[in-house]
Structure formats: structure tokens, C-alpha cells
Write a structure and sequence with these properties.
The protein is mainly alpha-helical and 177 residues long. It has one domain: Helix Hairpins (Orthogonal Bundle). 71% of the residues lie in helices and 5% in strands. It is built from five helices and three strands, in the order αααββαβα. The chain has a three-stranded antiparallel sheet with strand order 2-1-3. Strand 1 and strand 2 form a beta hairpin. Helix 2 packs antiparallel against helix 3 and helix 2 packs parallel to helix 5. The longest helix is centred in the last third of the chain and has 41 residues. It starts with a helix and ends in a 14-residue tail after the last helix.
């Protein structure tokens, strides 16, 4: 299990470095979305390992890793949009980072205000970003639900302990905050 977790972490960081390196190539726009999905898979696959490995689960760490992944992904897509340009008011323009972040954020959240759009050569990229966001947000919400359920169970155990006539030892919490 330790080997699996170490390999998972190693592949995760190799993917991050590969994505940063591919940003400066012409083929990066085709490979980076695949690597981002692979990173998301690595996050998903490490959750059961962490849950079974540690007696006390740190959902906070898993949630923070997911948030960092989301911010990293939005930034990477923003850079790809900066490199390829965006259509603003019907004209293809080279955009600054803030505009690209805005477009990536609206694409990520699938709000899509319509004031900025992608040119034809990268329209598929915006769809892939939206699909990536669906999966990422599902994982994020699942981690929050698990965390809240664990906190509720710990609270119930504590309340039962308080009500019991024998209070020899405090109940063990399943959660590490």
C-alpha cells in the first residue's frame, strides 16, 4: 500500500512537471487535457488508500489537494487560452491573463456568459474543461459529504459518551482536523 501511494504521488508530480513543460510546445494543447484527467484519476485513486491506511482520516488534506488541483487546472487552461487567443466582441484577440482566467473560470463553472468565446480550433478544449470540472466538483462534494458524515458520527459518539454513567475514557474520534 505504501508503494502504491508513493507511486501515485510520484506520477502526480511527474504529470505536473509534464504539463508545465508541454505549455511551451505546439502539441501541448492536445496532451495537457489528458494529463489533467490522469491527475484527477490519481486524486480519486489515492482517496481509498488514504482512508484505509490511516486510522484517523484527514479529510481536510484531501479537500485541500482537490482545491489545489482545481486552481491549477483553471490556471493551465487559462494559459492555453492566452496562447490561442479568444473571441471578444466577434474579434479574435490575444488576451491577458486576467481575461483568460475569467473565461476559464466561467467555462469551469459552466456559467458561460457569452461575452467571450473560444475560436474554432480550441472549442473542444472548452468542452473538455467543462467535463473535467464536473468530475472535479463531484469529487470535491463527495469529500465534503464524507467529512461531514464523519463529524456527525463523532459528535454522536461523544454525546453518547456524555450520557453514559461510566465515563472511563473519552471516545476515539474518526477524524483528524
Amino acid at each position: 500500500m505504501v508503494v502504491s501511494m508513493s507511486m501515485n504521488l510520484m506520477f502526480y508530480y511527474i504529470s505536473v512537471l509534464s504539463i508545465i513543460g508541454l505549455l511551451f510546445t505546439d502539441i501541448g494543447i492536445y496532451i495537457i487535457p489528458i494529463l489533467l484527467f490522469f491527475m484527477l484519476y490519481l486524486i480519486i485513486s489515492i482517496v481509498p488508500l488514504i482512508l484505509s491506511w490511516h486510522g484517523k482520516v484527514s479529510y481536510r488534506d484531501l479537500i485541500i489537494k482537490n482545491i489545489i488541483y482545481i486552481l491549477f487546472t483553471v490556471l493551465i487552461y487559462s494559459i492555453l487560452y492566452m496562447q490561442n487567443g479568444l473571441i471578444v466582441n466577434g474579434t479574435l484577440l490575444d488576451v491577458d491573463l486576467m481575461t483568460a482566467l475569467y473565461f476559464s473560470g466561467t467555462t469551469w463553472t459552466t456559467v458561460g456568459y457569452g461575452d467571450i468565446s473560444a475560436p474554432k480550433n480550441i472549442r473542444l478544449l472548452t468542452s473538455i474543461e467543462a467535463i473535467n470540472s464536473y468530475f472535479s466538483m463531484a469529487i470535491f462534494m463527495s469529500l465534503i459529504v464524507l467529512w461531514l458524515n464523519d463529524a456527525r458520527e463523532s459528535s454522536q459518539q461523544y454525546m453518547e459518551w456524555l450520557r453514559s454513567p461510566k465515563k472511563d475514557k473519552a471516545p476515539e474520534s474518526n477524524e483528524k482536523v
